[in-house]
Every structure is written in structure tokens, then in C-alpha cells.
């Protein structure tokens, strides 16, 4: 096979060495426009996991790299005159220039034709002449651009500026230095890569950059030229960190990170590798690491499959999930640094934990394994701020309004579609009672509707008749009489999403018969199959407002401890908030102030009807997941408005407002919205913030609470799977949480250890003799 590799960076060279070892008869040519000793950047970072793959694939390369490594286990967070150190992280770095040199030497040993000072042929030319074209031509890939219709790339440029530098100060750990300058917050990412030098990256929000460097930064630089004026200012700004040490440049200039994604990595016999296919923010590891993992997988897949077409399909099938997971973590990390200013009020101990867990790959439990002493210090710090005993964060008590909760776990509202004429049944008694017996601090009902026509389905519960009130009283009496849990009611009105089938008969589908008229802010159906809602008149709005108030009075009489107003998920109040569903031209539509008017009128009426000593929360959708809809900036203002009207808490969900939404699902995918609102609105107004959305492990809950991203965590499907989830979480963490006396005999932790979720592990699959390049490595999936 004749193979053309376009680009002589680490990805292209490493692929060439592996492919040549597996098939010495292959003719492999690498094009590189730069000289052999030209390189840009300083150190590149590898995790132990990546190095394990390199070692098994090519022991010669690994041994050469190992001799060059600078290794560290610690991460130091320097913030407000303090240093917090976390150990056990296991990384290695080396000079990018030395890495290229080693790979070039290995190519020469194996007979790979590397052509320096030579422009690569175009994708069309190469694909016509060669059997396989591997485009490793970087983030600005000419190949990807030329074949954009096939690869369908998207590039998202972010809001921070950064500059990549080196220094002769040899750091003894990975360093995060947070600088509070007259221009604003800046951060240093620093790590050693040899016994004489370290990488030194300065990153700052574009607004801060404009104030600090906007007038002096070079607007145009020749290839290889560095921004010396900016670097001189950086030396002054970072003097306390650098001391007498030097800063040096190598094609160093300000840039904004671009996240590259491609819908496909392959066009006929052309395949993308490394940064040409995808990028991940430098704050979670080197792009070189990802690129070399790509190269290893591509070489192995081509070797294992019977033909090239199958090999390329196998490569993308294997690598895409890993890259997607990495990009998701990188996005979380990137956004954390963009928004770092919202965390600088935190205590340095909490800030250190926050920065370490920003990508959600490192967690509370993970840090307990890596560095038990550091984790214990954090537990002690949190307990001291609450005047409480040391315990896992999720079991620290919490006070919302005047209501004391025994822990931070909430059973999220979940529609059960099992009421009869709006009356909850024995099912609800068992369903909600079992969750309260299971140890959660707060158990929420499903959305309880304020009128018969405000139901979603015929099976939805209500609070608009005395019979319904009595049935709910039976539930609250059980919870209060048998558990320490508190129970809350969520009040809502279906709006344009009403008159539909039970979920298991067809979610959001209209009833085959017996439909009732539905209403909304505007005459816009949820889908083409649903009814078109009647646009509500102002007198009808007043009538619905009064229905909410009357239901709130009934909820109080029924004994609920907390009331939540449902302003999310496209139901009536939510549809007033979103510009996608509210097209009114009167005082209830248009601007955000106008779109908030009716939900706030309802809130005020409910607050007046609900006992003053019992808290009210509001659930919102913090994004519509659709262009032109609510985004996180508007969500902050919505939360602010409810806080100013007296809300005790904001329950932060997302989406379900329009059927055309495109949510970005993933573990804890909604929590960044809760994080933003808590650290802006929650802190300013003293309101609690509840995080929800694919939170499924006690590790997630502990991490979110300790980092200050939420005050409470609501879990839904997790409690359907295991009604005693909180009790089991306590047992698995060896926390002596009291069990109901009837269940005490089962309170001992079962043998066999935790079952909280899978751990990432290496899996080595060999397709040939042990210890040769035939060894196959698959990265484990990250939690």
C-alpha cells in the first residue's frame, strides 16, 4: 500500500512509524513544509494512560521518550496568597522539539520517506496518486477545508485569549496561578517539561485582555514572529511568580482557542488525524496526546481489518466516542476558565477543589483515592463553614428559607401519570413514601396541576378539589410520620403541552378522543400533531393566576413543607418566558421584562397565598437548546427576577420548550447552568440553587456541593432505579446515616464493594506477537 501523510507533526510521524512496523512493505511518504528542527510550542503533556498505549505499541519510542520526561504528581493552586496542593495525578511532559526529533529518527530507522521543506500535495492530488491519504495537517487543515462538504467541520472560537510561552523557572508541579490584576483576573497554566524549562501559558477573558493588551498587542506578525511588546508586559504582571527567571518566546502570539469538530473524519481514501479532525482545550491535556492516540488507533484498525474501507470505518467508530467524551470534558474546563471571575469570591480551599474538578473527570471520590489527606482537609473545611460535623458533603444539612433539610439530596419531580380524575392514588403513597424512607432530604411530587384543563394527561394529579387535597394530605402525613424527609409540591399548568396521552401510550401525542381545549401565550402548537392553543386573554390570565393561588392554599392545608412553581419545560408559565413560544404584542410579550410579567404575577399571588414561614422555589429552563430561545444570560436575569420577588430557591433545569430542540446530553450536562446562577444570583440574593440533569452518582453530588456549583442536587431516574439510593450512598461511604427502624437489619454495607459506576481502565488487545507493534490499546471510557 502507498500511503501519503500530509503533515510531519507528532500525529503524522507517529502514525508513519506504527504503520511501517506493522507492514514494512508499505511505501509511506510524509510531507513537512518546515525544517527538521523547526517546531512551535514548548512542552507536551501525556497521561500515564496514554503512555501505557505508546509503550505497548512501540517500546523503542516509549523508552526514548521516557528518558526525556519531566514527571510530576502534584497540582498546586495559588490563589489569594494561599497554595493548595493535590497529589497523585501522574503526568509526564517533554519538549515538543525533542519529541519530534525522536519520531523523525524512528521514521529514518524504519525507512519512512520524510520530505522536509516540502509543501504537501493537495488532497485531490494525493488521493489520486496514493492508496491512502492521512491528513495530519493541523487545526487549520487545508485538507479539511478543501473537502469541507464531506467532513462538515464546525469551528467555535472561544472568549478567552491566551499566549504560549516558556520559562527557565522549573516548576515542581503543575501550577495554576490566579492573578488579580488592575485589569481583571488572569490565570497561569505552568508545568515543567525538562530539567531546565517549563511551559508557561497566560490566559484571560477577552474583556480583561482588551484592557491589559488591547492597545499594545501586535495586530500582524510574520510567520514565527512573537509579540514582544505583550511579552514585556507579561514579565511585569507575572513578576511575583517568575522572580528573576526569564520568559522566552517561540512563535508566541495571542490567540483564541478554536474548538474543531467534524461530522465525518473520512472522505473516500482521505482520513483526518489529530487537530485536523478535532481539538480539545489545552487545560485538560495536550492536543499531542489525543493526536498520538488517534495515530495508534488508525494504524491498529488498518492492520486488523481485512480492507482499507473497513479499517477507516473501525478507526472512526473507535475513536469518535473517546474524542467526544474528551471534548465534552474540555468544553467544561474551557468554560470554567472563561467564567472564572464568578468563583473568585470562594474560599481558597473551595476554589482549589473547584478548579481541580472543573472538567468533571476529576471528582470528589477520585481525589479521595489520589490524595486522601487533601480530601479530608476539604471535608473539614466544609464542616467548619456550616458549624457541623465532618461528613460527606451530600450529607451536610441545609436550610432553605426557614426549612431545615437533613441532607442535600432531592427526589426530583417526576410525572407518574397514575392519578384518577386528578386524585393521587395508593401508587403515589407508595411511590413518594418509598423515596422518603430511602433517605432523601426532600421529596418532590410530580407537577400537580391547578385545574382540570391544566393537566398534561388524564393521569396527572391536581390540587383543585377537596378530594385531591385529602389524598395529598395522606401522603404528607405518611412522610412526616415515618421519615425525617421533607416533602414539596410542584404546582403547574400544562398550557400548550396539555391534552395528551399517558407517557407510555405516546409521549406528547394528542388523545385519540376526549381532548380538552388547550391554551398558551400565543397560538403556536408544540408539534404539528398537537392542538393549536388558544391565545389567552388578559381576563383569562387573571383567572389562571387565581387558580394557582387557590391551589397553593390547598397545598398548605395538605401539609406540604415547600412549594415549587413550575416555570420550565414548555408548560404554561415557561411558554410565557420563551420568545420561541411567546409572540404576543401586548404587555405580556416582547421584551424579557414583558415575558416575565405573567409568571411573576403568578409567583406573587402564590407567595401571598402560601404560608410566609414555608419556602417557595421556582423551576426554570435555563436554555431552550434552540437558536433564538432563552440562553444562560437570560436565565440569569429570570432567576434574578424571581429572587427579587422573594423566591427562596431556583431549581435549574433546561429545555423541553420546543420540540425542535437540540440538547447536548451528557453526564451532569445541565449543572453548568445551575453553577452560573448559584454563583451570580444565589450568592447575591441568598437563594438556594438546585442542580438537576443526569446526576446519577453520589460522587457527582459530593463534587457539585463541595465545589459550590449547587446547594442541592435533584435526582430523578436514579431514584426510580433505586428508591433507597441515599441510604445506600451513605453505606457505601461508611457514613452512619440512621435507617428507618424497620429497615435497620439491612443497613450493613453488602459485600463486594461499591456499585456506583464503572472506572476507566486500559484494555490491551493484541493482534500479533506480544511486545510488538501488533499490540493494541483501547482507551477506557471516562465517567
UniProtKB/TrEMBL annotation:
Pfam families: FAD_binding_3 (PF01494), Oxidored_FMN (PF00724)
CDD domains in alphabetical order: OYE_YqiM_FMN
Region (Disordered): 740-783
Start and end residues of each FAD-binding domain: 4-327
Biased composition (Basic and acidic residues): 756-766
Domain NADH:flavin oxidoreductase/NADH oxidase N-terminal: 394-730
Protein name as annotated: Bifunctional salicylyl-CoA 5-hydroxylase/oxidoreductase
